[in-house]
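Our preliminary data section would be incomplete without showing what the modeling component actually yields. Below, a chain of 126 amino acids is followed by its predicted structure, encoded as tokens that our downstream tools consume directly.
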Amino acid sequence: MFTVKIRDHIMIAHSLPHPFFGPAQHMHGATYVVDAEFKSEKLDAHNVVIDIGLASDILKKALAPLAYKNLDEVEFFKNKLTTTEFLAQHIHSAISEKVKATFNGSLKITLGESHIAWASYEAPIS
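Predicted structure:
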């Protein structure tokens, strides 16, 4: 298996309004380190998994609509618990839409919530 991993970050605010989340049910900020790991069984005609510059641009564009936003006020996220896992899947979907015509493999999105906690979502690009 070949892999290419790129990294960016995003700052957001949100709340997780359910007693399950303890203090996080109140408004708080988060700065996520976002890793996008592209995986493929084979290299393409240029002997790469994916062009690193292209992958970086796509990740940046996928994060832009969320950057410096209060996710509680973003229409798409209304009445949704924007957990780290949920956001990883959301970012995976946004990137998948941009690369599905040219990339054949899987994508793993990992959000680093702190130096001790991460969450990921991985699935084939389809």
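The chain has a mean pLDDT of 96. The longest strand covers residues 2-14. Preliminary results of this kind motivate Aim 1 of the renewal.
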